[in-house]
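Hi support team,

I submitted a single chain yesterday and got back a structure, but I'm not sure I'm reading the token output correctly. Could someone confirm the output below corresponds to the sequence I sent? I've pasted both exactly as they appear in my results page.

Thanks,
R.
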Amino acid sequence: MSDDAAPLARGHGSGRADRPTMWGRIVGSAGYRTASNIVFASPRRQFLFLALIPIIWLVTQHVAPMIQMLNVSLLEAYPLTAGEEARYTGQNYLRFVEESVFQKPFFRTIVYSATLTLVTLLITYPVAYYLARYVKRDNQLALLLIILVPFWTGEIVRTYAIMILLGNNGDVNIALRWRGLVERPIPFMYTGFSVSVGLIYLTALYMLLPLYSALEKLPRSFFEAAADLGAGPITRFRRITIPLSLEGIGAGCTLVFVISTGYYGAPVLLGGPNSTVFAETIAGFFHHAGDSWPTGAAFAVIMFVTALGLSGLFTLLISALRKGDTK
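Hi R., thanks for writing in. Yes, this is the structure output for that exact sequence:
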């Protein structure tokens, strides 16, 4: 290439490289700069901009349905016929107080959920502790994926898996008879035991992940310092591990409790007449049109408010325990 041609070639290449892209033209435009100055003028505006989509999702998918449920619970009848005016009443809530037949499944659900939350915590805590403290970081993700595999299927499929295990001809009874421990199958199914096993199985993941997240962040230097000062394994677990993992315990227990109070499919498939939960009672009202829908909505609001209130009290208890440990 001649000396005269070289500058032309360099000029042609540099012109193509310096040509702004479409995104570059947008960013460099006056309208983009004006919009950026308006949106990001303050930290509060930045937060509102970033939280806009989550706020819209929360309002439309969670808050709005609950407001509608509350509105229906105060109506005398729903759905309304053409030209019918809405008449509001509190009788739907009084029905829960006046008719004790509805209170038994309600309190059974609360006791079930609280008890199973505690059992789930006791079962999953050692798993999360071992996974976070003794498994190498390179292998933790693989083990978590193995644990997550059953949860890739739906609730109904996993519930049927429990039914296969606990049935009269299920794997559990087959193993017991093979070992000679029983002569006849043990009737596990359609009892409170089968409902408990099913709910623990379905909610274990919601307890395991918060516990693992809290335990995985604990500095190993704390345990080494405590060991140097003469603290044994039990003392280190009681004085360091438990207090520093209270956040994970609180989050996991709250999730499991709230979710357990609303499960419907598993109790229907696994339970019997003596293990009816409140979600089944609520669903029964929505199987009929007319005056029963507002009663079902009122009972749903009662269950939601109760679960939310108990979860709030538990959260306050966890916060008090954490503050007490930091003093």
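A quick pointer for reading it: The chain has two domains: 1-54, 93-326. Let us know if anything else looks off.

Best,
Support desk
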